[in-house]
Amino acid sequence: MNAFDVDYWIGVMCRCSWTPRTLDEKSQHALLHLFHLTDQIASVGRDNRREFWITAKRGSVEDFQLYYDEDATEEELAEAMQEQYPEDEYWYKFVSVHHTGCRKGEFFGVFLNGKPVLSMNDPNEDGNPFNAIELLDWLIQMASGVLDKLRAGTYNTEIQEKLPDDYKYGVISRKDYWDIYPEDRADYRGAFKDWQIEEFLRCKDEFLADHIPGNCMRHITARDFYEACAVCYKAVRMEQRVHFPFRDAKEEHLRYNGTTPKELYYMFADGRDDGLSGVPLDDAAAFAEWRDQKGPCYEFNGHHPWEIIPSGSVEYSMHLQVMKSPNGFYYGLYGSTYRLCTRAGMLESFLVCPGELTDDQVMELLKISFRQPEVVLALAKMVHDVHERSNVQNPLE
User: Fold this and answer.
1) pLDDT at res. 207
2) In three state form, how does the secondary structure of 216-259 look?
3) Extended beta strands in 81-221, E state
4) Residue 388 C-beta-side C-alpha neighbours within 13 Å
């Protein structure tokens, strides 16, 4: 396979990282053979992780035409290929992981340059058998070649000598970087005045001291979390849906006299809950263990359990996270923009041709509206009623 083929397969297999393709039986057997080869390499890090570098040649203009435009001239193809693939050879970092912390059994996963391309027993796979034998045969061939070089003692030397600098990356602290390049520290700090830096450090210290509430909970359960979510859903007036992916037990419906907090969570939340649905409702120890990404209930499937109202943009979503301090557990709520956008939409729905009005004109209309006696009285009564109902026993009432 050339680099065009490899990139094509990466695009096909990684079309949506949270719903990977389900491999057909032949491809699954090939994947297990691939892992039989990679298991002969020493693991690094968690989940029996193996990693190594492989390469693919660029390919010819004729090869490139298959992935470009069949009607393009030879000159257009050559120009486009040179623009998109200027090098003669391309490198791919192969990473494989294998673990048993999956409700479907043993999980097998393969990544190329950080993108998930192959997996087996992924809880989120699409369920449609797919033949990826062409990609797997190439990976098996490449892995066999790496094993031969490792046995011969030439692999590490080859990587050190041939791997282009563009593929060499890692992590370094800003302090260490600035110690190496002090001129960059001076340039960075030059954008701020001394008083601004002092003010930032003061705010940082105040935040660390003040952001943890004084009434932390010693223990917290999954039920506590779901009930807190229900309070948030009520606050932003989420309308219940008819169809949702989770149905609670009858006794839970009787407890809440209808839709349960857990049902509301799975009605509105992101869904990638990392196994939260399996945590016993009233078991504080099980919830704490799951929160620490441990125990039989934890299962990584996207790591979005705290996104209780999802959105295409983090700015407009809502997150309710269970935080932990030396004093106990507390909630961190992020998503004030969600309320602002929701209420702005409500107000704009009453405007005729809102896009044609300026912000000043809309503000003038609001001032006129809220000066009306009946509006003033209605608002005062609403605020009074809120204060009267400040102690809510049931989050759904």
Assistant:
1) 61
2) CECCCCHHHHHHHHHHHHHHCCCCCCCCCCCCCCHHHHHHHCCC
3) 89-99, 107-112, 115-120, 129-130
4) 6
23-32 mean pLDDT: 97
> In whole angstroms, what is the distance from residue 375 CA to residue 34 CA?
70
277: which 2 tokens? 């649905």
- Decide if pLDDT at 85 tops 60: yes
Burial of 30 (0-12, 13-18, 19+ CB in 10 A): buried
pTM: 0.60
DSSP 93: E
198 pLDDT higher than 80: yes
Give me the pLDDT at residue 396, please: 46
DSSP string, 324-380: EETTEEEEEEE-HHHHHHHHHHHHHTTSSSGGGS-HHHHHHHHHHHHTSHHHHHHHH
Decide: 82 and 68 in contact? Cβ < 8 Å. Answer: no
Q: Is the pLDDT of residue 284 over 80?
A: yes
CA distance 33 to 249: 43
> Which own/partner contact pairs does 95-102 have at CB distance under 8 Å and 24+ positions apart?
95/49, 95/50, 95/51, 96/34, 96/35, 96/38, 96/48, 96/49, 96/50, 96/51, 97/47, 97/48, 97/49, 98/35, 98/39, 98/47, 98/48, 99/46, 99/47, 99/48, 101/298, 101/299, 101/300, 102/299
Q: Who has greater pLDDT, 205 or 109?
A: 109
DSSP state of 51: E
Q: How confident is the model at residue 376 (pLDDT cuts 50, 70, 90)?
A: confident
Asked whether residue 357 carries a pLDDT value surpassing 50, the answer given is: yes
Q: What are phi and psi of 31, to 5 degrees?
A: -65, -40
- Residue found under tokens 């009432």: 397
Distance (Å) of CA 259 to CA 21, 230, 305, 396? 34, 10, 20, 8
